[in-house]
Amino acid sequence: MFYRPEHGHGLPHNPFNAIVTPRPIGWISTRSKDGRENLAPYSFFNAVAYVPPQVMFASTSAKEDRHMGKDSVANIDETGVFCVNIVEYEMRDKMNVSSGPYDQDTDEFALAGIERVACETIDCSRVAGAPASLECKLTQIVKLPGEANYTVFGEVTGVHMRDDCLTDGIFDVLKFNPLARMGYRDYTVVRERFSLTRPGE
């Protein structure tokens, strides 16, 4: 099968986000300039550089009550900071609750029963007990083609790692099993790993 996106795919559901998979989930916590807390998952998320460490996530839908699409992007545009919380399998249901299209006054931490704790380097909350959290300062927001597509880039200014996720000095993802997004309504979980040595190493 071949299709041109501008002509449509003719399938019951869009296959695009099932092709680029699995995708890590960035559980983005932000705080508005007037102090409202927000927490939302984004599966267009990844690390993009080592030195200095940098991450990105993309928001692709709009809300009538906020500029720049979603609450997360609007808050980051206002304050210049955000935190990426890593989602473990055990938190899948709470993460899902926080994904709803709530109004800007809704505190997803409270709605989903998620404990919060203050960040160290930025004025924002993070998910208490997350396997890892990355405190970030905004470097740029890029408007992408499409009505409500924005990509947010940030430099990591603080890193939290849960102590039980460290094994002999290595951050061990099998200690918490990261959740990842597949297509449609599907997710997957990391339970296995293997190593490869690069040519020349």
TrEMBL record:
Stored Pfam families: Flavin_Reduct
Coiled coil: none
Superkingdom as given in the UniProt entry: Bacteria
MF-aspect GO terms: FMN binding; oxidoreductase activity, acting on the CH-NH group of donors, NAD or NADP as acceptor
Gene3D superfamilies listed in its UniProt record: Electron Transport, Fmn-binding Protein, Chain A
Matches recorded under InterPro entries: Flavin_Rdtase-like_dom (IPR002563), Split_barrel_FMN-bd (IPR012349)
Residue ranges of domain Flavin reductase like in the record: 18-173
SUPFAM superfamilies, alphabetized: FMN-binding split barrel
PANTHER family: BLR2425 PROTEIN, FLAVIN REDUCTASE LIKE DOMAIN-CONTAINING PROTEIN
Protein name per the record: Flavin reductase (DIM6/NTAB) family NADH-FMN oxidoreductase RutF
Organism: Rubricella aquisinus
